[in-house]
Amino acid sequence: STPLYSSAASDVYKRQEEVGVEPTEEDKIKLEDAEMQTDKLKLTHIKAGTAKREEASIQTESLPPTMEEIAEIQSEPLSEEKAASLNAFLSGALDVMWKEIKRTGELSLIFSNLNKQDFKPNEEIEVLYTLLSDSAGGVQESLPTEVKEEENEEEKKGESAKKEVPQLTSNTFEVSCLSWNCTGASIAVGSTQKTHEKICGHRANVAVWSLFVKSFSNSKPTLSLDTPGCVTALQFHPKDPKLLIAGTFNGNILMWDVQAEDALICMSDIDEYFHREAVTQLLWIPVLSNIDFSSTYNVVSLSTDGKILFWRQMDMLRHPIRGYLLVTREQATSKTLLNPLNGFCLEYAEDTQSLLVGSISGSIWKIGGTIVSPIAPKKNVTISALKWKDEAAAIRDNLLDSESKREVMEKVEKHCQDRGIKEVSYPHVFEARIDIRKLYACPNPYIYEPHNGPVHSIKSSPFQRNLFATASADGSIRLYDQQQKAYLLQLEPTISATIACIDWSPLRPGAFIASCSSGELLLFDMHNNRSRPTIKIIPPTKAGATTVKFNSRLLSYVAAGFENGAVKILKLNKYYSIGAVSREETGVWKYLMEQESKMFSQQFQIRKNTNLL
Fold first, then answer.
1. CA–CA–CA angle 491, 497, 502 (5° rounding)
2. CA–CA separation, 359 vs 367, rounded Å?
3. Could you give the CA distance from residue 550 to residue 532 in angstroms, rounded to a whole number?
4. Cβ-count burial of 587 within 10 angstroms (0-12 exposed, 13-18 middle, 19+ buried)?
5. Mean pLDDT on 47-56
6. What pTM was computed for the model?
7. Is 229 left (phi over 0), alpha (psi -120 to 50) or beta?
8. What are the backbone angles phi and psi of residue 83, rounded to the nearest 5°?
9. Is 253 helix (H, G, I), strand (E, B) or coil?
10. For residue 313, what is the DSSP state?
């Protein structure tokens, strides 16, 4: 039998399974839809810099030579090319070394005894090369000149050779200008005929010699550049060794890249607003941009037509950006025919940012102010109904006189509107045939005491602010202070000869060299002698010396051009090439300017009162 309590428990369990409890409203599950803002996914692209691979060659040490090899090397003579290369390296290295010694000497007395050296200023100067190009097409004659040829197989044994070098006679081309490039390794030579008629029709060129190449030949230039007429001015770029500009007798300006196959880059035209007479001087002038403050160079040209023109390199000599007429303001405002100053030489004084001009009449002018910083034009400038292109706007914005600027704008725009032109470009500015006195400003010059003959050369001192020297056909060399009209010192080294050119030493503060029509080269040193030249270089030929130029990079080299078409490369003695500069030399001009200015100011006033000026 089944127990009673078991049955009862089973019934209760069954009843519990069958009982259900209904959930309340609060216990029910509630479902809702909701949205939320999440951060957007960010994708970033990153480039990892990989290592750059470069190939380089290095010189490793070789095994030491044997005694036989040393004896063989010492017995071999040094070739001319290797000797020239070694001299160039030593000149450059010594230049850097002496600059550091000079800088240290100013701060310390360790090198104070270095000035007491054995270098003598009157030691002889050696003639290294005589350069001569027969491409000018003149009559030639042969003069015996000792020149080493390239060694052939037999000459390597120690034999030297001599040959007769062709030399142009005085009836052909004469050297008119010289220019070293910024490395000092190349020199450009320009030649011209002595006499001309109205227009030059001579076949001329610019000869470029690279002095330290293996193929160097004194009778064959490394490069010959043809020109449409005789060359009257020449200048390498001060920073770029391959850029060269030249001016011709007819008024053209040419620019070359001497390292390119097609060397000619551009050439200017001949026009009333450009040059139409001989270009007598060319300069590269640094210009600071007013936009990004970068430094560039403009070309400044001087001509006997009485104009100074500024050219931007980016314009490719298509037109000048600014100009000056060498007339006084009284002449500019008068209705009479203009009689401008015939400019013969030009110099840029960087310390004072002024132009120094020497003329055929003997006058010396200084033009200062804002003349050497042509501003950059504003882009897309619209005036009235016409738009001015950049090159035309550059000419317009560089007009100094506001009244002239307004007149030029009105006339140019009327010229374009009459022909249905909506954009003004640079040719339209000149096609409008504006009065040249409106387009080119007339400076307000500071006029110095004049020479009695044409001023052939004018140079500012690289060491002394405000000091410049002039060379004249009256046979005198004068030293001026930019702030005084009277000259400080006058030297008359020759009686009958004229002074053709002058140049300052890049090392000695008181030294400069002058070339004479008698053929002499006179080296003056104010620290040693203030009245006579320290060294007289008298070449064997009777041709006059037309120009002379120091090498500012390789300090031991000087080039001189002559009337017979020859160029002599001279090597200075150690005193003028590697000698240390003493403090007495640095102060020689300060003392001279203080003492001489007082005396010559009194003499100048006396000459002015007696109508001698």
1. 55
2. 14
3. 20
4. middle
5. 70
6. 0.72
7. left
8. -65, -40
9. strand
10. G
pLDDT band at 162 (very low <50, low <70, confident <90, very high): very low
- Identify any residues that bridge with 178 across adjacent strands, giving them in sequence order: 189
Cβ 221 vs Cβ 208: under 8 Å: yes
Question: Which residue shows structure tokens 């560089």?
Answer: 398
User: Whole-angstrom Cα distance, residue 96 to residue 278?
Assistant: 40
**pLDDT tens, position by position, 542-589:** 789 999 999 999 988 999 999 999 999 999 888 887 766 666 666 666
pLDDT (tens digit per residue) in 400-422: 778 888 889 989 999 999 999 98
Q: Which of 37-46, 57-66, 395-404, 516-525 has the lowest mean pLDDT?
A: 57-66
Token pair in block for residue 100:
């550091």
* Of the ranges 80-89, 321-330, 372-381, 591-600, the best mean pLDDT one: 321-330
Instruction: Indicate the DSSP class of residue 246.
Output: E
What letter represents residue 151's amino acid?
Answer: E
Cα–Cα distance, 421 to 415 (Å, whole number)? 8
- Which structure tokens are listed for 211? 């002095």
- Name the pLDDT band for 196 (thresholds 50, 70, 90): confident
Taking the C-alpha atoms of residue 17 and residue 386, their distance in angstroms, rounded to an integer, is 103
Burial class of residue 380, CB neighbours in 10 A (0-12, 13-18, 19+): exposed
Give the pLDDT score at 255. Answer: 97
CA distance 112 to 134: 51
* Residue 232 near residue 278, CB atoms below 8 Å: yes
How is residue 169 written in tokens? 């006679």
506: pLDDT strictly greater than 70: yes
Question: Could you please report the per-residue DSSP string of 509-561?
Answer: TTEEEEEETTS-EEEEETTTBSSS-SEEE--SS-PPEEEEEE-SSSTTEEEEE
Evaluate whether 178 touches 549 at the Cβ level (below 8 Å): yes
Higher pLDDT pick, 178 / 531: 178
Alpha helix (H) residue ranges in 58-127: 67-75, 80-107
Contacts of 550 (CB under 8 A, 6+ apart): 503, 504, 505, 506, 513, 557, 558
Other beta carbons within 10 angstroms of residue 126's beta carbon come to 11
| Residues whose CB falls within 8 Å of the CB of residue 551, separated by 6 or more in sequence, listed in order | 180, 184, 506, 557, 558, 559
Q: How far apart are CA 111 and CA 109, in angstroms?
A: 5
The two tokens of residue 573 are 């003695």
pLDDT of residue 164: 37
Q: In the numeric block, which tokens belong to residue 159? A: 């034999």
Give me the phi and psi of 555, to 5 degrees please. Answer: -65, -15
